[in-house]
Every structure is written in structure tokens, then in C-alpha cells.
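Continuing the series of single-chain predictions for the mutant panel. This is the parent chain; the variants come on the following pages.
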Amino acid sequence: MSNPLISVILPAHNEEKYLKATFDSLLTQTFSDFELIVVNDGSTDNTGKLLAEYAALDARVRIIHNEFSLGLIGALNKGISFAKGKYIARIDSGDTATPDRFQKQFEYMESHKDVYILGSWAYVIDPESRIVAEWVTPIAVDSKVLYQRNGIVHPAVLIKKELFDTLKGYDRRYSNAEDYELWARAIRGGFKIRNLQEFLTSIMERRIGMSIKDLRKRAWDRFRVKARYLAVFFCLTNLFSTLRSFIACSLPVPVFIYLERKYGKTLTGKTYLKGNQAR
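Parent structure:
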């Protein structure tokens, strides 16, 4: 197809169980002028076969096959390098978008030329598609918001391709916080970030909670990002947040587990539903 307005980047590594729901939500969008770039990142299951079937059914689907896995950041940067759209949209396997997600995000971006990154609120769903949490983000994201709680749902964003051309993609050095580092770099560069106050995407958690090892890796990479940009974003609030992150990364495992369970979800902006509240 000729240059579309939106390029959707979907990395996939052994995702045959989860692709159908994602494709069904994307290919029925009310906004149709997009390409769906799927990076099949060295899958060894039936992901490749399933992708070929979708590509045969819809010309908007473009498949990039990696013989060996490049990992998430490598797959994202490769997908973006093939993108033809004015905007880049993100989503992951198992995630779904409301039918009007692209329409609403595109219209907002077109009427707010100074905004380069646009997110939204998101539901958190389990593998059975039950809503288990609500992920609410602030309207505007600046350095203080970023240092306190991130404030952006990565698989829910629409980003001007111009930003990636300027910032040269995701940084491989932050494999557990590649999105967080990109937001920091964008804010440093003067690129405005906003969120629509609507639930436009559902993010699938294949297990509620991460392993302690994964949580510590993520916490460490976020601390590294904060420390790297602290001189640029210096204020007492951000200094305190950076020190707090360092202390959290250095705590004995039992204390880290306790604090993560007590405060970790609050700091992300997620509100988990209890028991029979899940819907």
C-alpha cells in the first residue's frame, strides 16, 4: 500500500496463543489508513504460519521475519525502520484496542501539532480477557511525573515518526526500561507528551505480577535512567525519587518484596480489582 498515516508495530516471539484477539481488534478499527508491521522475532511455534494467513487476508499486514530473536528492543527498532507512516502506534500480542482507538488518537494529534507522544488509559486483563486492573495516567507527563510514576502506558501510545527519526529509536542499554528511557529522552528534547483520559487499550498480563528477579532488573534500569537524566531534570523532588530508587534496588530481597507488594502497583498508576471485582 502507499504511505499510510499510521504504522502499527507489533513484535511477536512465539505468540500463536495470543495473536488472534490482537489482530481482530486492529483490523476492525474505524480508522483504516494504517499498516500493521509484525516482527516475527525468531518464533519456533506456529506464529509464522498464523501471520502468513493474516497477511493473505489483509494487505495492510506486513511481516518481517527474523531468523534469530533480536529481543524486544531489536524487534521494535527494526519494525520502526520499515515504517512508512506519519505516526507509530504500539501494541503487544494479547493486547486489544477499542474500535475507535486510532481514530481518536489520530484526530487529537492532528489538532495538537505540538504533541509528539500520545497515550491513553488502559485496562489490565488476564489471559481469559477479564479486567483485573485499571491503569490511569495523568493528562500531561513532564519530568516530575516521569520520576514519580512513569505516567505512560507503552502499548497504548501513538508517536510521531519524526520523534524516532530524531532520537534514533529505543536504547538497547535499558532492556528492562526501554520505554521509560525513551520518554526521558523525549522530555529532554522538548517533545510534549499527553494522555487521553479514556480506556482505549487493554493490556494483557499473562501472570499477575512479575518475578522478583524481573522486578529488580526493571527497578535497576529505571534507577539508571533517573540517574542519567537527573542533572537535566534536577529538582529536590526528582533527587528524592532517584535516591529512593537506588535504595529500593539495594534492599535485601525480603524487604524489596514487601515494598514492591505494598507500593509497586501504586507507583505505576495501576489499581488492581479485588477478587469478584474482576470483570
